[in-house]
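Continuing the batch. This is chain 6 of the set; chains 1 through 5 are on the previous pages. Same settings as before, nothing changed between runs. Recording input and output for traceability.
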Amino acid sequence: MNLVVDIGNTLIKAALFESDSIVWESKTNHQNFLKSVYPIFKEYQIKNILYSASGKVDQSIIEFFKENSNTFKFDHDTKLPFLNTYETPKTLGLDRLALVTAAYTIYPSKNVLVIDAGTCVTYDIITEKAEYLGGSISPGLVMRLKALNHYTEGLPLLSLSKAATSPIGKNTRDAILNGVINGTVYEIDQNIESYMSDFKDLTIILTGGDQHFLSTKLKNVIFANSKFQLLGLNSILEYLLND
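Output for chain 6:
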């Protein structure tokens, strides 16, 4: 069985895979991570671990991994199963590389656009010839809400817990939510249209924490998959094991 771990600045996400299926998943802070994974090492035979770190890593976590399983670190020097044509590969987010790996593995020989709606909205394209070309980055929903509050006098800081009550904002709250959510939807739809004009039979994946706010509003046909990054990390691990 494979354990994949994404170590962020504040949270650690982990998933245990049996073949291509997730049998256990966790999202916790750094302090409680080891406590959360101890039980699964007793319950399952975990042979391989892949971890990715965008934040500071507690060395005790890495030592625990190495003591219990065959351990790999995913970084910018990790070999991947596709051609990366990004001009500055060392600056490319590891999360984006994991998403592209999932796209390559699950949809081989296809043009795939992966849209990750999280802190930022990222767009990444991999071609049917297994060439990763790059993409774009724009602010995510929460970042847009914070920017309106921070840079504009008098506008409140809103959350996404409730949608606007009317498609036409008749109060400041609804006007902000309509502007942020609909503006992001229009942006994504327009980007999809642009990519579809350049790449035939394009498969579109939407993932990330805010996908549920956006997926039903988009006019284009998409596949929503909240586990896409974890699937990508497992695909990378399988590739390293079989290379």
